[in-house]
Amino acid sequence: MKSKMISTLEEWLPESRSWISDQEVGDDTITDYIVLRKLAKECLKKINSGNEYEYADAGEIAKVVNLIYQGGNQYIRNAIENEFLTKLSTEESPASLKKHLDILPKELRKEYLKTILEN
What we know:
The chain has 119 residues and is mainly alpha-helical. It has helices at residues 4-12, 30-47, 52-71, 74-90, 94-103, 106-118. Helix 2 (30-47) packs antiparallel against helix 3, helix 2 (30-47) packs parallel to helix 4 and helix 4 packs across helix 6. The longest helix is centred in the middle third of the chain and has 20 residues, at 52-71. The protein is globular. The mean pLDDT is 83.
């Protein structure tokens, strides 16, 4: 059975279906973490592509993640902070900070900066 987070991602980001393989979708809660890690990797690829359309797609990913974060319980929030935001922050440099902050919705920026400071 798909988690609420995976169902939401597939609904709002149809291309995410290609990032979520059937073997990963199961009852195991680790699946959410794996999918968020892949989503962050895809988001970083789009940010760094140099293509304005890809950059806009990265912004859409961030908006959907924000929707999930805002409507999620503590488990969902922790998963997003631990996998999505942490993955973005590991690729952080002074040159990329502005790009990352620009794509993140206001609500997630605070958590992102907190993640950077904690790591």
